[in-house]
TrEMBL record:
<dbReference type="GO" id="GO:0030027">
    <property type="term" value="C:lamellipodium"/>
</dbReference>
<dbReference type="GO" id="GO:0032420">
    <property type="term" value="C:stereocilium"/>
</dbReference>
<dbReference type="GO" id="GO:0048870">
    <property type="term" value="P:cell motility"/>
</dbReference>
<dbReference type="GO" id="GO:0050957">
    <property type="term" value="P:equilibrioception"/>
</dbReference>
<dbReference type="GO" id="GO:0005902">
    <property type="term" value="C:microvillus"/>
</dbReference>
<dbReference type="GO" id="GO:0007605">
    <property type="term" value="P:sensory perception of sound"/>
</dbReference>
<dbReference type="GO" id="GO:0005886">
    <property type="term" value="C:plasma membrane"/>
</dbReference>
<feature type="signal peptide">
    <location>
        <begin position="1"/>
        <end position="27"/>
    </location>
</feature>
<dbReference type="InterPro" id="IPR026748">
    <property type="entry name" value="Clarin"/>
</dbReference>
<dbReference type="Pfam" id="PF25807">
    <property type="entry name" value="Clarin-2"/>
</dbReference>
<feature type="transmembrane region" description="Helical">
    <location>
        <begin position="135"/>
        <end position="155"/>
    </location>
</feature>
<keyword id="KW-0732">Signal</keyword>
<comment type="similarity">
    <text>Belongs to the clarin family.</text>
</comment>
<dbReference type="GO" id="GO:0010592">
    <property type="term" value="P:positive regulation of lamellipodium assembly"/>
</dbReference>
<dbReference type="GO" id="GO:0015630">
    <property type="term" value="C:microtubule cytoskeleton"/>
</dbReference>
<dbReference type="GO" id="GO:0045494">
    <property type="term" value="P:photoreceptor cell maintenance"/>
</dbReference>
<keyword id="KW-0812">Transmembrane</keyword>
Length: 232
């Protein structure tokens, strides 16, 4: 592939990596990871609510990785309540999983920035070392994509398997019991998915630029290339 096209591909990949880093940082700071509704089952059972009356006992909840808010509905109007994960909810949530999600988000941001820098270096510089060259770009893209996948797996297990929304809804509730009525992942969660796909796309862009995937068998094993040739 001609050099100008390689530069264009590497610049495109660098811009995408930078956009992923910024998008992940913005996603971490929002409360738009999960949205749902919670049913005040105790209040609904007391008055035997059904049909349209049931809506008077359905509140709303949304949260991110650090904080969130819920609206408590028990038949007497909505009562908003703000909460934070640190340190209030650490006793009732799977703290190890939650901290791991935040840690992998940080790693994703760092390696996306590193990848963006090295993509630009490969576009306008003369890389000669493994971590600086195409093999390094494959490495940074693979790590970033893997971190994005781990974030989604861990957070999904925290929400669905450990019933995170229900635990938050019943936090400091002594009289009423709340159950999850509906629940869906919001914009920030899908931002992580998009970032993972973008890093996978970056790996394909490296291949389109003419560089073989790591550990692939070279076509001509007898040909010696690189800096070693300068020694002979």
């Amino acid at each position: 592939m001609p050099a100008p096209q390689k530069k264009l591909l590497f610049c495109t990949a660098g811009v995408l990596s930078l956009a992923c880093a910024l998008g992940t940082a913005a996603a971490v700071g929002t409360q738009l990871w999960v949205r749902g509704s919670i049913l005040c089952s105790t209040g609904a059972l007391l008055v035997n609510a059904s049909g349209p009356e049931l809506h008077k006992f359905i509140g709303h909840i949304q949260y991110g990785l650090f904080a969130g808010q819920r609206v408590r509905q028990c038949g007497l109007g909505g009562r908003p309540f703000q909460f934070s994960f640190f340190p209030d909810l650490l006793r009732i949530i799977p703290a190890s999983i939650h901290v791991s999600v935040i840690l992998f988000c940080t790693v994703l941001i760092v390696f996306a920035l590193v990848g963006a820098g090295f993509f630009m270096f490969n576009a306008f510089g003369s890389p000669y070392e493994t971590l600086h060259g195409p093999l390094g770009l494959y490495l940074w893209s693979f790590i970033s994509c893997s971190c994005g996948c781990l974030i989604m797996i861990l957070f999904s297990s925290e929400v669905k398997i450990h019933h995170l929304s229900e635990k938050i809804a019943n936090f400091k509730e002594g009289t009423f019991t709340f159950k999850t009525h509906s629940e869906q992942f919001a914009n920030s969660f899908w931002t992580i998915l998009v970032c993972s796909l973008v890093h996978f796309l970056n790996a394909l862009l490296i291949r389109f630029a003419g560089f073989e995937f790591p550990f692939s068998k070279p076509k001509d094993s007898g040909t010696v290339t690189g800096a070693v040739d300068l020694m002979y």
